[in-house]
Amino acid sequence: MALARFGRPARVVLETGRMANWLHRQLIARDLPAVCVDACQAHAVLSQMPNKTDANDAAMLAELARTGFYRAVRVKSEAAQGMRARLKARALVLRQRMDLDNTIRGLLTSMGVRLPKGPRRWADRVELALEANEALALALRPLLRLREDLARSLAELTRRLLAEAKGSDLCRRLMGVPGVGAITAYAFLVTIDDPTRFAHSRSVGAWVWVCPVSVDIHEAFA
Q1: Which residues pair with 35 in a beta bridge?
Q2: What is the rounded CA–CA span in Å between residue 18 and residue 39?
Q3: Rounded to whole angstroms, what are the CA distances from 171 to 85, 165, 167, 183?
Q4: Section 98-121 average pLDDT
């Protein structure tokens, strides 16, 4: 390991960022005293350096570690990171399918094409409308095939999230609240990750910016 030649460090400080979760877990797994700090606060300190280089940034972070002038943040568990990845993947596919639907509708409208009545599936109605407009069909049929692929991916991701949510006792309890479905409960569970870090339940609302409670909301996940 690269740090071995320097001996055992008293503290390893890294900023929140794209790789912070993985780096923090790997350092902790090697029994190193790693601390993840708020990147905004670290940036305020690092910006005082007249010449910004990687070496100077490392020196300033080491000084933060020595003085203790930093705000440590919580790092999400590996399980929560995996859940968050699945949630974000579903959100991306859903957004892409909606954008695709809006594009198809817009192109049809711009050509004065109205969807016929008949088939229940929207894609089938579009196909019928394209039979009389070959020029538009050349543009939209590839989009319809892409839409089918997105629909299958969305259904697969949704089934997986619903199964995980229904298998979680906490998610089932949250779903007992009127208006809270499986996906919302799943997203809340991923966001909170470790509820024991909140001393009071009212602090949770302030941390997710939904109520004006005066608490330290900067204690966050990386």
Answers
A1: 13
A2: 11
A3: 18, 5, 8, 9
A4: 88
